[in-house]
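COMPLEX REQUEST
Ligand: copper (II) ion
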Amino acid sequence: MRDFVLRAVTFLLRLAATSKPRPAAHPALGQPGPHAKAPYLLPPGGGFLPPAVEKRSCPSSAQICSGLTVEWFAPLVVPPVRLGLHTPLRVPELVLASLLPPLRVRAELGSLHGPPQRPPALGRRRPVNKLSSAFLHEHNSSIRCSPAADERQPSLYSLNAPLAILLESANLDANTHPFEGYRASIALSFSSISTALIMASYSQSMMALKGVVLGALLLVGTGSGVAAGKAGTMQVVGNSGVSAQMMFLGTEQKVYILDKTENNPLKVNGHPAWGVEYDINSNNIRAMEVRSNTFCAGGMTLGDGRWLVTGGNKAVTTNGADAKSGQGYGAYNGGRALRFLSPCDNQQCQWDDQASNQLNTERWYPTVEPLADGHNIILGGMRDGGFVPSQGSNNPTYEFYPIKGDGGSRNLPILQRTVPLSLYPIAYLMSSGEVFIQAGREAILWDYKKKSERALPTIPGAPRVYPASGGSALLPLSAENGYKETVLFCGGMSLGKTSNWGNEGGPTIAVSQLPASTSCEQISPMAGGASWEAVDDLPQGRSMGQFIQLPDGKLWFGNGVTTGVAGYNTNPNAPGRPVGESYGDNPSYQPLVYDPKASKGNRWKRVGSSNIGRLYHSSATLLPDSSILVAGSNPNADYNTNTKWKTEYRVERWYPEFYDAPRPSNGGLPRTFSYGGNGFSITLPSAADAQKAKVVLVRTGFSTHGMNMGQRMIELETTRQGSKLNVAQLPPNPNLFAPGPALAFVVVNGVPSQGKMVMVGNGRIGTQPVAAKTNLPGGKRDEMLEGRNSSLLERNLDHAASQLGHDDLLRRSGLHARHHKSSTDRL
Ligand SMILES: [Cu+2]
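STATUS: Structure written out below.
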């Protein structure tokens, strides 16, 4: 204790000599307070911090509860570093923990590059520094846990014993690693505990360049600029319980995660779980019963707001081997499954996964895209398992849910022509009602009404569909770009000859160390003479990279590997040369942000970094606060902790650079949106804000395999009158944004509000009511019609509504109310 105070004084003195005076101490941090007896970490150079002790509840069913991250900066050549829990754990909160079974310690070490821009926050779970152009490079081989194990072999410690972790750094090459810095993530795991656990979180940072322990700044206390600090970073926030092969945002509070059927330690109804509901705020999970095997299924919302997850694979037993239906882990054949979920916030909803609901044919790796009438189109897949299909196992057809017309499966010739690269075809509904489809190297516009196709040019660069697994995204639609669709593809893999992809048994050449493609290409399929256009290359090749649409119009690109492809093989001598079981290796730890409006050459930016590899079967989704939940990775046939790329349960959250900025209110947003019809208005704090404001809708999508089915964003038309922002409904064409749930945001000067879950369309499956395009006051044309505007608008809408014969439209548009009362938030 005396030592502690002495060190504090020393650092304060050093600090006083090297920095400007700071505001008065934060009462909780300015003195060795209630945390003074807590264990602390002994960092390189002897700096220290009183750790923040944090209570954390683990889900009752979870077996692992993690969350201790240490970060610091050090010179290029780092001497061996000793981090230790310097004193026995004696804080009152930890007494309970000390009575519990042994503590399991696992640590991973990575390096961070880029100068620190601000001191770390203390007293928060995440002690992360904001780093510019951070670059992470993993050095797992250079870490040792003392006394007896390395990071891949968790060792057991008693909580009452001092814990020390020795980090022996490698000598880094200054040319390839332009800055210095390390991060150690230490996961503390408790086994067999079903009650709430208490975790301690420690932060430590040292910037050796200045000889100052940044953390010591916090002893002096700081005002603004230190307390927040999530922006531009990534942190571990929880545990998914099942590996997140598939993931989607269901409500403003809940994310739903699906795994394939495998031996996850998390159990439900006496068998391993493969589905959970993940609470965004508490990071708690609820195991959910799913009857059929969801192995590589497709999913999307329907026009009535339900989620459909369809297709999958056979019932399996240990290590992915086929099981008789109902045997093994309890899964049923999911090949023809239609599973439904109405997401909820009260923990009561369950998957509706009845054997009576069936597709016409088995589909493993089908793509699902929502249509203008609230149906889903379900494209392709395979009739059985395997790496890639042969003509025999391929299913080159599509069908609809709910069933349309003759109810059967229709042929889709592109999926026959592109075998073996025909699984998970990339599909986006176009404004014409045609579906843009990309598979193999082909691209087409498919008219499912006429059962005809229009060919588009062959995609340059590399194959993009599974298992080459490039990322793809539809760029935001707006009046500014005339709602012209542009589809962007980045990364993927070329193996030269198509035959090198092999067949169900795997690739015929070694793939795991082949560099993935850096190429990015885009096309505007509806434009006359549509052609591919090369845009900024990825800074590093990537397979299984995933685009996530951000409400500011930019796109996150994360997850995946820099070498190899999707898929796995349990045979280490297979021609594809799996690493462990994974055909992908050398994960990309560096999320990027793509700005489609930036000039060419300036579109990519590195934001944040991780030290968790997200290989095959990982996923990500946008959350209402514009952060991104990142989870999954299991390039193995079953739950596997005994291989290089283990089954990954840690859940991370990535925070955009605007994360800490004050957010606009979403209070003026309605809960329902229509196609055309009466707009609405939002009052912003100032006219200047209104000038920079917009309203966007984002369908966050169904994330799996580097895809995000259904994801798209549309910006609504607006005009301004002082501080009032007049907002149009969606354009009168449901093909531009199919009906169903979406997140709505007010975005001011690039900073989004919290997203509000809204319903686009009438909330029903079927032809959607469409009214005339919203006529906004304050626009150039309307300035001339000032005074007459509202009556004209009403006449137009009356006319449109009577033509369409939709009472519902009138009711929902607020038009009736408008006739009788003056409303400031309806136009
Ligand atoms: Cu898969």
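REMARKS: Residues 547 and 824 are 38 Å apart (CA to CA). Residues 1-6, 8-228, 781-827 have pLDDT under 50 and may be disordered.
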